[in-house]
Structure prediction request, 575 residues.
Amino acid sequence: MSAFLTISNLSAMLRGGRQRVLRSVDLALEAGEVRGLVGESGAGKSMIGKAVLGILPSAVTVVEGEILLDGKNLLAMPQRDRRRLIGTVAALIPQDPLTALNPSRRIGRQITDRLVDILGWSKANAHARALELLDEVKIENPERVMASYPHELSGGMRQRVLIASAFAANPKMIIADEPTTALDVTVQKQILRLIREMQARHGTAMLFVTHDLGVVSKVCQKLSVLYSGMIVEDRTVGEFFAAPRHAYSKALLAATPKYTDPFASLLPVDDSVIAAADEEVRVADREWRHAG
Amino acid sequence: MLDGRGAVGRKASWRLILSGGWLVLIALLAVAAPLISPHDPLEQDLFAARLPPFWMHGADPSYLLGTDSLGRDVLSRIIHGSQIALTVALIAGLATGFVGSLLGLLAGYLRGRTDLLISRLVDIWMAFPPVLFAILLIAVLGTGLSSIVIAIVVIDWTRFCRVVRAEAMNQSKMDYIASAVVAGQSRAGILWREIGPNVLPTIVALLTLEMGIAVIVEAILSFVNLSISTDAPTWGGMIAEGRTAVYQAWWVLVFPLVVLFLTVLSFSQIGEGLKDRFDPVLR
Prediction:
């Protein structure tokens, strides 16, 4: 069975730069599956999600590769069609709930826009659907929240609204871009549980971008580890936690604090591991340049 | 929690009350000018020339603010002048705001070549001295209300364009724009629905400022005799006439000047007040 989302050999560059920010990335997401995308800051993990959704920052351009979404090659499509396709089958749970809602529009309209404009629902149906979803993400008094502006809600509430909004159009795939990073630890846990519940109930495939291996072990079935824009490991979560293969992912896993031994000193990723990984990146770049 | 709308906004602000009150007064004068002005603003009476305002010795109480060198009533001329001032302020202000904001939104959101073109145009435009530019334009277009409006739009659209472009650029970087893109919204939809409402408070503040500027530009052009027509009463025209006889009849210069000053000040202050009240960041 072919995957719902297939990324093959995807490379992206900074405009006018010589370095690649994504280095021949291969990644597949089956329908209904949750895949973690792990890496340190700047490894390019959000960049992959953004490339798929067509929201790369203007300074970054895709220079090579293919993104197949639901069997269609996104990069070969006209922009208008691509936006429509993404609007119908995919959604985003963004990182920062504070900037991800339009401050001067009511919550309700922001959820129902897509249903009305892209899917052609009637306003009444869209409204009912939004209420149903707000209820599903455990927001009390959804009618009132629909009529309020984002600044009237707390960060956790806004993230719930964004989750409701992401699931509203019954997407086949959701990209969650570090959905809990901007929240308090206590709220993080609730939001994470909520995302997992919603995913299970709707059977939505999900690409879960995070730097937290603990989160991955709870939410995901598969996992890709990214270093400097290069996928260094692609396994099922069970296999990975049992025995990571790549030296970098081994060190990363060893550096994660353990609940079983909270007083153990934290283990940083060793310089020699980083040096080896950097060398690997250099070799890959050289090969890529020769091939191109 | 759900009532967080504007601790700032609820409090009555003196700035809004005073500036709004003055502008309402001027608007009423303009609308009711034929009914309330004590004299015909064009009627000359050389026997009643240079009569002082009512509290001074030798005044005629039917000419409250005195008369000019041709014996025309200053108060009636100010009242009728408000018609032209407000018409120019509204039409030129809105037209300038529309043209400048539209170009600014396009440049700030689309970026790329559109932005390059519009921004360079702004740079070139700003190298022209605005008043000379306006005088030149009127000289080419001829006097009249529409020429004044066109001149103001042509010299002042850059004020909106620059600010709105920067604001649109800021908004475009926000996550909610990315969310709207993912939700399949078209570019026009994003510009209109997502960016527009967030730039609106800025546009409103600029708009009122621009109305004040339009009043000044009209006065400047009247001052150099290039406005509507020579005999229509305008504040700028009155100031120009008053200047020649300032030692004999200061009131012909001072009263229209004060009214002009208060009107322009009120326009700029009402803009600031409205921005404070409606800015979603402050709210």
